[in-house]
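Suppose a colleague, Dr. K., hands you the sequence of a protein chain of 552 amino acids and asks what its three-dimensional shape might be. Before reaching for any lab equipment, you can write down a predicted structure in C-alpha cell form. Begin with the sequence itself:
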Amino acid sequence: MLVPRSKKLASNAAALAGAFVFAASILDASVFAQSSETQAPLVENAAPEPQTPIAIAIKASISEAVPEGLRTYYDERVYAPVWFDQNGLRENAHLAIAAMAEANDHALNPNNYNPLGLAQQTESAQTPAEWAAFDLELSNQFLRYATHLSSGRVQPNKINRALNLFPDRPEPKTLFENAEQSVDFSAFLDSLAPQSDNYARLKRRLAQYRQKAETGGFTSVPEGEVLKPGMTDPRVSVLRARLMEEDIPGAEEHSGDVYDGAIVEAVKIFQEHNGLATDGVIGKNTLARLNIPLQDKLVQMELNMERRRWMRDYLGEFYVFVNLADQNLKVVRDGKTIHTTRVVVGKPYHATPVFSDQLEYVEINPFWNVPYSIATKEYLPKLKQNPSALSRQNIRVFQDGNEVAATRVAWNSYSGGNFPFRLRQDPGDGNALGRIKFMFPNEFNIYIHDTPSKSLFSRAERAYSHGCIRASNPFALADVLLADNNSTPGHWEGIRDTQKRTVIKPVVPVEVHLTYLTAWMNKDGSTHFRKDIYSRDEVLLKALRKAMTENL
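The predicted structure, expressed as C-alpha cells, is then:
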C-alpha cells in the first residue's frame, strides 16, 4: 500500500494512553510561576512580554521556520502554551495526538506527524525549554496534519500543470483560534476532513478493502482461452470466488463449470464497475482487470482520497460533472443526478485539463474557429498539396478579418512559425463541433460540444479528441441545462433546424467541473475503478511518496 500500517500505531486512541502518564499530574509550579526577572515597568502601548518561564521559553524557541500565522497566534496569547497548563495536558492534546496516530484511516501517513515522538516528549520533558519544545512541536505537527487532511498533502498544480485546482489551505492563526473556541474538539477534528459523502464513502470502502488484504487479498484467475457465455471451463469456480471476494452481486448464486446465467451477469457488473465493455466476455482486458493485485487497488483508492481533498465539498446547486477518467458526464441539481451521458475526451497526447468554471452560453449552429495548432499541423500540409482541400469541409480562410480565396494563397511559403491566417468552418452537419456547443471560456480553450462522429460513443474507452469534450446526444443535455430558459420539448432542436447561428445564455447559473477520478464508491455501494488514461495516478503517487519521505 501507499501508506503501510505500522504495528506501533494502533487504530484508536487507547494505543497512546500509556504514553500520557503525566496528563493527570501537576506540572512543576516553577514552569508557570511568574518570573520577577521579567517584570519590567509597563510602557504605554508596548506589546506585553511573556511573564512565566514556559512562556519565555516558547518565545525563545520560535524561529522563522514556524509559519507566520502560527507565530502571530502565539504572540497574541503572549506565548502561553497551547496544549497544556499547570494541571497537565489538556484533553485537546490527547485528542489531537490520537487523531494523528489514526491518520492512516484517511490514507495519510501517521509518521509524518510524529505522534509517538510527541507522546514520548510528554514522558521526558521537565524543564521549561523541554515543555516549550513539546508545545511548539505539537502545534507544528497539528498544523501539518490539518493541512494535509483538509486540502491534501501536495498542491495539485505544482505536480501537474494540467491540474488547475488550488485548494484553500488552512490559515494557521484562524485554525488555532477555531480549535481553541470549539465546544467539542472531537467534532472539530472530524470537520477538518472533506465533508462530502463521496469522500466518506471512499474512506469506508478503503477500510473494507484493507481488511480484505489482511485476510489474503483476491484470488487470481488463471490465463486461458477467451471465455464466452455457454462455454464450460474449470476456471469458472475460480472466477466465482474472485467475484465474491469483491462483493459483486449474483456471483454466489452460480455453481458448476458452465459459464452462464448468474455468473455471466456478475461479470457484466464487474465490467461496468471497471469501465469495460459490458458484454460478459472474459477476454484480455477483463482478465487483466480481474487480476489486478488488491494492493494496487488500495493504492488507487488512496490516490483518489487525495484528489477528493483537493475538491470543494459543495459543488453548487446546479452543475455539470465530467470525470475524464470515466469518460462520462452527469448533471446534478439540488443534490440529485438528473442527466448522464457518455463523452469523448482528449487523447493522452492532448489530455483534457482539470478545472472548474461556469457555463456562460450555449451556441446552436456554431462556427468552428480552427485552433492554431490544428490549422498549422493538420490542415496546412493538406493545403500545400491541394489549395482546395478544405472546401469540401466548408472551411474558409481569413486574414486580418477578411476572407481570402484558398486557391490564391501560396501555401508552400508558410509554416507553423509564420501562419497569418485563421481557418473557420461554417455551421452544418459536418462541422467539427456538430450543431451545438456549451461554452465556459477558459485559458485552455476547452468546451463541451456535439460531433458528427457518433461511432466513438459506443466504445468503452473514449479518449480521442484534441482536448475538448464531445457529448453524446447534446440536445438532450441542452434540454436539461436550459430548462429554465425554455422547457418546451424539441425547442432547441427547432432552432437547430433553422440553420441559424444562435447564442443562448442560461438564466440559472450552471457550474462546470472537469475532474479526474480513477476510483470511487457510489451511493449504491458499488466500487468503481478506471484505467489511468493520462498516467496521472503515476505522477501523483511519485509526488505523495516524496511528500511522505520529506515530511512536507
